[in-house]
Write a structure and sequence with these properties.
With 638 residues, the protein is an alpha+beta fold. The chain contains 20 helices and 13 strands. Helix 10 runs parallel beside helix 19.
Length: 638
């Protein structure tokens, strides 16, 4: 359901505004609304705060990677923030961590370059530069060369080549030129050595490595000692940003001496607001919302539906004069997910993951679901539903439970019934059930649309919508009663005729009452044509919507078939081995196939079981219920 709201307008003396805003922020229940039509440019102070927030977030991410801790589990410390956030101790630590990061970024390529130079110089040993300088003065210049061992032994005994060292790949040797001219062509690769001597290069490597180690240790020290303070700094910056944004939404009056502020608060917080206002020196006006107000939306549901509010937010908040779709989305999304998974064994694993997530331990497991962080309650509920539906359908890790219950037991008869055809048809029971569930889902959507539009526009403007509801829902109910023997054939025929006549009046003649009032003749001509066009859209669209629910059966069938296939592969490996050693190898191979196969099937099925039920709610249900999701979320100044 949607929380009831009230609007509050303040007039605050400009000198008291900063204190008033901080007190209002501490109260934490007021959603500030933009006042008037002013278009104030974003001030430099707000842009600077956003830049500071970005720096703090980047540093927190860096420190989290270093320490391996979960930021949500770190105890928030004291940020030591003053009026100037930039001069706070926590921000100085942030700047220091940034400086360390920039220095380390510059050190890494420098160390890599020196290590590369050292690798080139090491085969040549310690080079006497003074002796080489004397040779250069005499017009003799050395050439550093390499060649493979076989090539060197074959070709270079005839040349004046002086071997320096060897390794597994090359022979390193020197040749000499006189006055810069080679006496003859020498078939070997020539090298150009770094100018810096090997001993200096190695000394620089050690120095830079020690510097890097010291900087990393300093950064780790900050992570150990001040992570909570930096998190507190982030929250303080968030608070300052919220105040700046609230200031942008206000306007000034009376020669800038009075600040006008408008906002919304939940009716359940009226006592807290009244207590706050009684202590403030500010004029205020409190009223209920009117139709033209853009009221922020705060959803308020029971514990089960609350878990699925995040799905509603993914699509968009309802408007204040609409209904919260969460109470319908929650049970149907759960049911659709469970049908798509359709395996009790997979449901148990999903329940276990949800329990780990709620206990705060799921992110420490090898498979980390960052997207599911904080959704442990919803995951557990989906797993429990999957387990129940899997048991109802008779599937456990790809195994058909009908093969493991006594043949003459009621449970065996039940599983045969579920796995067979729908009574009176040649269609699969599970496929027919998926379509029936879809029909119920769409009927609820159409009923919600009729009631909501009637509430917003009045009964006379929605007679066509009610006509379609009567025709479809009434026809389904009457047909069902006839099939179960409650209604006789004659009673059913007369009832269907009555429903058709009344529905036709609404669909073809009263679809636009205003047109009928203006000109009855014009209405009698145009309204039926509009009704025919609406009939075409309804018939084609509704048929496609109903068939969309077949995907529930298809995904359940695909997941079960894939799980069964992995079981068969594992069984083949296990049963086709001979001897004790072969038996052990077969067991190990089968377990690997079972584990990897079912893990892969679980992940693929879970993705499909999330996406497709979401589509059935966001497309089929929301379209037929008239839900648009254009509301604004309630974001109190905190």
């Amino acid at each position: 359901m949607i929380e009831k709201m009230k609007k509050l307008t303040f007039l605050v003396y400009h000198k008291d505004y900063e204190r008033f805003l901080r007190d209002l922020q501490a109260l934490g229940v007021m959603h500030i609304q933009k006042s008037g039509d002013q278009t104030m440019a974003e001030p430099e102070s707000l842009r600077h705060l956003r830049h500071q927030k970005s720096d703090v977030v980047n540093v927190l991410n860096t420190l989290q990677k270093i320490s391996g801790v979960i930021l949500d589990e770190v105890r928030i410390g004291e940020a030591g923030v003053t009026d100037n956030i930039e001069n706070s101790q926590a921000m100085r630590l942030v700047r220091r961590v940034q400086e360390i990061g920039n220095t380390l970024t510059a050190l890494s390529p420098r160390i890599a370059s020196l290590q590369h130079d050292a690798e080139i110089l090491r085969p040549w040993g310690i080079i006497d530069r003074s002796l080489l300088n004397k040779l250069h003065e005499a017009g003799i210049h050395e050439q550093y060369r390499i060649a493979s061992e076989s090539h060197f032994e074959e070709r270079f005994p005839e040349y004046a080549a002086f071997e320096i060292s060897r390794d597994k790949r090359f022979v390193y040797f020197l040749t000499f030129d006189i006055d810069g001219q080679e006496s003859e062509y020498i078939p070997a690769q020539s090298l150009r050595l770094p100018e810096q001597p090997l001993e200096e290069v190695e000394r620089d490597i050690v120095t830079l490595a020690n510097q890097k180690e010291a900087l990393e240790a300093e950064r780790c020290k900050v992570s150990e000692d001040a992570l909570g303070d930096i998190i507190a700094l982030e929250k303080e910056i968030d608070s300052a940003i919220a105040r700046e944004e609230a200031t942008l939404k206000t306007q000034r009056a009376a020669l800038d001496t009075v600040v006008v502020m408008e906002g919304w608060f939940p009716v359940r917080e009226e006592a807290a607001i009244s207590g706050f206002l009684s202590k403030e020196q500010a004029y205020y006006e409190m009223r209920d919302p009117v139709d033209t107000d853009n009221v922020p939306i705060q959803l308020h549901n029971n514990r089960f539906n609350r878990m699925f509010e995040r799905l509603t937010r993914m699509y968009g908040f309802p408007c204040y004069n609409e209904w919260d779709p969460t109470p319908i989305v929650a049970p149907f999304f759960t049911l659709f997910f469970a049908i798509c998974m359709g395996d009790a064994g997979y449901g148990l694993i999903i329940m276990l993951y949800g329990m780990l997530e709620m206990a705060g331990k799921a992110r420490k497991t090898p498979i980390v679901g960052e997207m599911l962080h904080g959704c442990g309650d919803m995951v557990f509920a989906l797993g429990a539903a999957t387990t129940l539906v899997g048991l109802a359908l008779g599937t456990f890790f790809g195994l058909s439970l009908v093969d493991y219950v006594p043949a003459n037991s009621p449970l065996h008869s039940y599983y045969e019934f579920v796995g067979g055809d729908f009574p009176g048809t040649t269609y699969s029971f599970q496929m027919a059930s998926a379509i029936l569930i879809g029909v119920v889902h769409l009927c609820i959507a159409m009923m919600v649309k009729a009631i909501l539009y009637t509430q917003k526009e009045g009964l006379s403007a929605t007679l066509s919508t009610w006509g379609w509801n009567l025709l479809l829902i009434g026809g389904i109910v009457v047909g069902t009663l006839y099939m179960v023997g409650t209604l006789s054939a004659e009673t059913t025929r007369m009832t269907i005729i009555a429903i058709g006549v009344v529905s036709a009046l609404g669909i073809y003649f009263l679809n636009n009452v205003g047109r009928m009032k203006e000109s009855p003749l014009k209405g009698l001509l145009i309204n039926p044509l509009a009704g025919l066009y609406d009939t075409y859209n309804m018939a084609s669209g509704l048929l496609g919507d109903v068939l969309s629910y077949v995907r529930l059966y298809a995904l359940c069938l695909a997941g079960g078939a894939l799980g069964s296939a992995f079981n068969q592969i594992g069984d083949m490996i296990w049963t086709r081995t001979e001897g004790t050693k072969g038996f052990i190898i077969g067991i190990i191979g089968a377990v690997v196939i079972y584990f990897i196969g079912h893990l892969l099937n679980l992940l693929l099925s879970a993705i499909s079981a999330f996406v497709h039920p979401l589509r059935l709610n966001f497309v089929e249900y929301f379209k037929n219920s008239g839900y648009e999701g254009k509301g604004t979320g309630y974001e109190p100044l905190k």
